[in-house]
């Protein structure tokens, strides 16, 4: 039994995740060594060491969640605990949280700093997938099948938006939307739900209008049209221009690992938001292609697992996790290339950030576990059924004889 389970794990998915995380660790060191000294007064390997610790912790977390059967999360007590811990962690941030980047989004435990909203993304995926999987027999009954889970999503989005962290709020909404669209609801129900969502979120937009439509945030959109314009290049367009310089100067082969010019104080966060620009500058097209193809493989693999699985809960989990990684990848890459405003979203597995790395480790552990069960049922359950049919037919023939 154990041997069959071990054979059913998707090792191609595990290998790609490991390679991408190790690649990210190397690039965090390369991108942060100057910033650590110049901006923060740390040792050159400060961010590298911290990322390495989180990577080792993430490996343990990944193994744990890869071994825990995902169907355990269907238990009402487990789901209730997930919901309760999510809301408590988000509420507590207003009392005990630390402000960083103009948002009160962090808990500090000595040298350790964690962002609870990162982990809430996984909680939303697990909760919505479980609830809508259970409601499959009446998924299109609006009051009974659709509405109840949305109370949790509204509360989570409100608490994250009040920090304020509108980038993470938008990602949570998109993740929830992806799971809802994939849950089996018909088009009419989805439209009704979308209209209700607009009505529910309108008061929050009105209350937080000064934050949402502040001059600083509106400037991020105006920068996209022409970051080189007078008065823009020295202000809001400065980061985007230097991102362009980094991407453009890398060419095909890049300047060489560790040889970036833009990380020497020009790009503000070369090891977090702009790490792909540094990869392009140092490793060229090949480095960029490796990251995009690896992330694309993870996303497509997750969608394929979701489509292949026969269990609605497992399918929704796989689609939700792969969707989250795809959404964050798109927002990060679109931000550094001027397609979309910068939102401070890290590049999955590559950017520096302990909370992001731990959250992704949990998510990928769950995805690998779902994949294992899908492969196990396909390889061995079908063979057992075929074997049972053969035995039954032989028995019938012996009786006839």
Automatic annotation (TrEMBL):
This protein's UniProt keywords: Cell shape, Glycosyltransferase, Membrane, Peptidoglycan synthesis, Transferase, Transmembrane, Transmembrane helix
Q: Name one Pfam family in it.
A: FTSW_RODA_SPOVE
What this protein catalyses is: [GlcNAc-(1->4)-Mur2Ac(oyl-L-Ala-gamma-D-Glu-L-Lys-D-Ala-D-Ala)](n)-di-trans,octa-cis-undecaprenyl diphosphate + beta-D-GlcNAc-(1->4)-Mur2Ac(oyl-L-Ala-gamma-D-Glu-L-Lys-D-Ala-D-Ala)-di-trans,octa-cis-undecaprenyl diphosphate = [GlcNAc-(1->4)-Mur2Ac(oyl-L-Ala-gamma-D-Glu-L-Lys-D-Ala-D-Ala)](n+1)-di-trans,octa-cis-undecaprenyl diphosphate + di-trans,octa-cis-undecaprenyl diphosphate + H(+)
What is the uppermost EC class here? transferase
- For this protein, the Enzyme Commission number is 2.4.99.28
Q: Where does the record place it?
A: Membrane
Provide the transmembrane region boundaries: 12-33, 53-70, 77-94, 114-133, 145-162, 168-185, 190-208, 283-304, 316-345, 357-376
GO BP, sorted A to Z: cell division; peptidoglycan biosynthetic process; regulation of cell shape
Q: Name one GO cellular component term.
A: cell division site
Record family assignment: Belongs to the SEDS family. FtsW subfamily.
PANTHER family xrefs: CELL CYCLE PROTEIN, PEPTIDOGLYCAN GLYCOSYLTRANSFERASE FTSW-RELATED
Q: What does this protein do?
A: Peptidoglycan polymerase that is essential for cell division.
Q: Write down what this protein is called.
A: Probable peptidoglycan glycosyltransferase FtsW
Which organism's genome codes for this protein? Answer: Bacillus yapensis
| Lineage, uppermost ranks | Bacteria, Bacillati, Bacillota, Bacilli, Bacillales
